[in-house]
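Sample A.
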Amino acid sequence: MVEYGGRRGEIRWSDQTLLPLRPIKQFSGTVSCWYCDFKFSALNEPLFRFGRRHSRCLRVWFSIGVVFSLAALLGVTLIILCELVRTTLVCAGNTWTGNSLFGLASVIDGLHISLPNMVYLCLSSVICVFVHELGHALAAASEGVHIEYVAIFLAVLFPGALVAFNHSSLQALPVVASLRIYCAGIWHNAAFCVGCALALVLLPFIFSPFYIHGESLMVLDVPSMSPLYGYLSRHDVIFSLDGIRIHTIEEWKQTITMLTEQTYSISSDQPSVNLNVENGYCIPQSLTKEIAQVQFKGNQTYCPKELIAFASMTCLDVEKYTNDANRNNIHCMDAKDVIKLKKCAYPNFKEQALTNGSSCLCSEVESCLTPMQLPGLGWVEITYSSLECHNRRRSLFSPEKHSSGEKISCLQTFVYVGDLITMANSIHLTSYLPRWSIYFMAYLPNLLEKLFTYACHVSMVLTLLNSLPVFFLDGEYILEATLHCFGLLSSRMRQSVRRCCLLVGTSYSACFILQTIFVSVS
């Protein structure tokens, strides 16, 4: 944000000024019922000297920013107009065809900011505002405009910052030079957003001497409310889900989504019970005779604590995968013992059956038993190990042996039965594994990754907001300076056009934001 003397939004000479003509104290402040600020001028001279020393390079840099900001001002305004027209037509038909062009509805709808994430948000906001105001200050210094002070303020509950310039020096500048100053904040935020995105891409290479990225997932925290609390611990390394190797957080999310879709597809075919041969295990028939059968109360099955009901399935070939889940073929078994046995079928059992004629792996003296799940509840095997074991396994085995899936004794497996999406979102994971078992090192990449992610998003939001033709934002000053380029317009007509554009822009922007929030909430 930029502040200068004279009537707000008018670039013309005036004997009156809102800024003091003499230097203010190095530190000062203002406090009222709805507004408070903190002004400081300690950086005035260093920034001015730097701007004058590198004025030629800075002018070229900020001239590029003028082109970008004017394009952003026009583009964002057109997008908002198109969105309002589209939404009005859609609402008139009482239908909704999707998210907005910005995707803000989906972002707000899925926004769950915890206390630690709020710290990242506040810190990234401070950094992005600093980058924004630094752009204004450097652009002004490169044009020979002295900085009066830098202020950090809190208006009602909205924080912000501004750079106040010497009024006389600012009024003497040509229009193009003024545009470089007004557009500098938007341009710096856009460049900073690109820089954060680039840093996220290069982060695995930067940390490669100390961390391995994309080999496995490591658990950073398991809250006490998580359904995996007591099963996974901090610094455990997750190896696979249902035998599917997991390397990154994106693969974790994709696999969870795939398994959830499979669960619901089976539930739609068998609404009363889920039986999936891919989750079946070959149980020796001699063992099933010794196990007590499940108890029934009406149509519901009941097993003792920590036991799960398993039903037998016919597993001869792909044409005979039928459900034999009658009361005589249902048994209560311990999942910890069952998952140690081999599976009834390959993961791609249907393709195997078409090529080999049979996909069943059970022998004649074994029965294929699969867990009975309630509709909507998933069954997933989670294979993991400790960080020490993972590092020891990496040092003992070559990449060829590692990729061949050689069985390592320190790998452990447990079964989770329940809502998979809730389970996946309940723990904190990272794709970075420290090369050495030094636990405090485990959190550094995740901290920087989150900080860069939040800073990228906040900087992008500041770029879009300040590009709008809205009162009290940079778009107001950019619009005013741009209108001065049209010499055919009189001063009075320019002010009328400016006020009309700002009123329409502010109204449309407010409607767009409120509409986006309403759509996401409803």
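Sample B, a different protein:
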Amino acid sequence: MFKYVELCVDLRKGRFAKDGLIQYRIICQQVNVSSLEEVIKHFMHLSTEKAEQARTQAQALEEALDVDDLEADKRPEDLMLSYVSGEKGRDRSDREVVTPWFKFLWETYRTVLEILRNNSKLEALYAMTAHRAFQFCKQYKRTTEFRRLCEIIRNHLANLNKYRDQRDRPDLTAPESLQLYLDTRFEQLKIATELELWQEAFRSVEDIHGLMCMVKKTPKPSLMVVYYAKLTEIFWISASHLNHAYAWFKLFSLQKSFNRNLSQKDLQLIASSVVLAALSVSPYNQTHAASHAEIENEKERNWRMANLIGFNLDLKIDRGDVLSRSALLSELVTKGVLSCATQEVKDLFHLLEHEFLPLDLAVKIQPLLTRISKLGGRLASASSVPEVQLSQYVPALEKLGTLRLLQQVSRVYQSMKIDHLSRMIPFSDFSVVEKIYVDAVKHNFIAMKVDHMKGVMMFGNMGLESDGLKDHLTNFAESLNKTRAMVYPPPERASRLGEILPSLAETVEREHKRLLARKSIIERRKEEQERQLLEMEREEESRRLMQQKITEEAEAKRLATESELRKKQRLLKEIEEKELEEAQQLLQDVSKKKKGKKPLLDGEKVTKQTLLDMAVHEQIKEREEKEKKLTKLSKTMDHLERAKREESAPLIEAAYQQRLLEESVLHEREQQLEIELSQQRHEGDLKEKNRLVRMLGNKTIFQERVVHRRQAEFERRRAEREEQISRMIQARKLEREAMRKKIFYVRSEEERLKKLQVEEEARKREEAERRRREEAERKAKLDEIAEKQRQRERELDEKAERQKRELLARPGIEPRPIEPVVPAPAAPIAVAAPAPGKYVPRHLRQGVPAGPAAEPRGVRPDDRPTLSNDRWRSDRSDERRPPAFGAGSKSTWSSSRPR
């Protein structure tokens, strides 16, 4: 099998290697698992070695000096290839030499993991292969392969849970198996964070949590430290500051409880990180004004994060475990985390959470942030915790300080200059402050407006949801009820008994209803209890039937298993008998080949395997004899060839000397011929030179004429070009001037129209306000006239009633009709006073008295006129009043309410 694996590796036949290993696993699974383990280790060792050799070869090719001409930069072939492909030499060598072997190594890891998956006997080898695959991805920065590897391992675990009736299935409840799976997941988490694959890192965290939820066990504290350390990095990268702070808090608790080697300095640094991480959380809710679906999704996400951070192995969602900034800060104070932090962190916490310094907050925060940014370093007594740098929290703390300052300033001031506010925040520009307060206003943390034209920031309340305005309708209704009670006071009750009796009847009725409701509740509870009992009995019966069904199925399965076992035993017996017959036949064949020689002793047990071993032994003996004959023949041929060469050596030397003489004579003859040809060519060249010397003057004259003509043409074209450029520059200047004038005119016209529009709107508002004020004054005057008219009518009615009682009280005097008393009008037009709700022309208002009438006796000074649109009291009460005794005419008062 080793030779087969070596051939597959040399030929890079990953498919054949996989098929062979699968077949070998089937053979060795129940007999010799260690053999399969050794073969797989050898296979991975060969693949890794070949990949390293290819990488070394590529580096050697890159570094080798393979240039023939040292004066030339590159060969023509290299230049053409670089222009066509665009690759460098190293890239091409990697693609041609290294990449195929890396692909084969990656296929090797996948093949081994696929063969070893869900096998309890090879769990350690599976974990070792996964670790080596992780290191391969880390060493060569193979992010895509790392994602695929994580998905492969995740699918293996899912299949392990899905198919629970597999043979040789690993038992996750066993401590050894669980530890191997946990080590693999934690290695996956570490490599994911080192490769900065944060999404895969978070999925690895979920894998660890899901694995622990399956077995209902909590890992060791050393592993939990790694878990929370990686969670802090993941949450910080994802800008989830609240979860980052909770992860730091859990990490602090673990280190303080289980790390006995933790020094005071390291504990102080971790505590400072926890406090600063908690302060970095945004103080307002990010889901303000979000839709219902977004809020529900955010709740679900927060519950998931709470389960991951709290490592809750119960998958049921607990609404009480939702994380918040205020709960975290209070927990830090109560559990003493704040007391373990440095003094700078304590002072910063006190300033940001408890102090009210609207003018000096940023100035006091800045030196603390400067000192905090210099703190940090590697923890000597906590190797699993990454390097702590408190400077990463400085931007978030500056944002928090800005928010606290704006919040405190908004409580004290109504407006503030932007320049003054910028000076109050020395560590941030106003553009950054502007982004911060826009986000805070968006999430309803503060209420403010900015007028950039005036350079002013205006602070206000929190809108309609503030304490002063959210109950304004209720307060308005209460005020109206009080006003109505003052205008129309309730009549005084006659006696104490009259007050008690209505309330007594109401109390009896209310108590009767309460008793009836209690009776109905009791009956409903009884019915609910009976229904629950019936439901429990029904469930118990269904459970009993289900258990009975499961028992029957188990019995049927047991019987089927026994039948199948008997069938297999029968088949095995038949196979053994057949093998015994074949062994006897082979024994007879061997006896015939040996010509009567008995290959086995009498009484020895004859099996098919024994005969096969004998046949193999005979074949080996024949092969050895053939090899001896070939060795002897090769020695004979060697002696013969050596003798032939010794005889031919002098003949070869004589032929070589003869060849040298012939070649020297030929060389001298060819050299003499070349000298004669060179002398003839030189004489011909001299004659041609003498013939062409006569034309040298004509050539010079022609050359000067052409140069002068081209120089004149060049000067002419340059002058034309400069003139054209000057014209274009002048035209563009005129065009820009016209455009500036047009823009100025358009802006001036827009400002003028806007100013006219603003003035027109102000005039309209003033006109509407004036009309509203005049209408209110007119209504007040009409109400006053109506009240005076009603007062006079009441006085006349009282006077008539008093006269009637006096006449009836006199004995012996017959009553006589009393003339209707008509009051003397104060003015001719007063009798015909119109209703208070109607319009009175100006020429009819001249007779109305300017001064108020005398205040009648018995009228309270706080009585107010009744409005015509009073919804609680109808104006028809005056019409239902009985007329005065002897009055012959109706009152001139009428209701203005439509009938």
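Observation for Sample B: The chain is about 70% helix and 0% strand.
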